[in-house]
Amino acid sequence: MDNNLSSARLVLFLTNLIVAFIEFVIGLRLILKILGANMQAPFVQWVYDTSGPLIAPFEGMFPTTRLTGNFIVEISALFALLIYIFIGYIISEIVNYVQESATLRVISHKSRKKN
Length: 115
Description:
The chain has 115 residues and is mainly alpha-helical. The chain is built from three helices and two strands.
């Protein structure tokens, strides 16, 4: 049972870590685009290069809104944020369900052995 618990915790930790990184990078992208960051700056290029593949499946779903100047609001990136949060939540729920099922099986097995 302890092995199942530690495996579940590891999966949950890694899931949360990956989702947090994805959310951080896409969030930075949104902020940089809204503020009209210089695309020639190395950090801005890194953020766009890193977040590009993450939002690629969602590009073109919604119109990109251009405000005055270089200020851009990417609705597709906002939608991607929501989807990645949802995916992380679903993975966490599946891991919790599997862990609880395994724990209940172990408890049930132990109680049958006692009787």
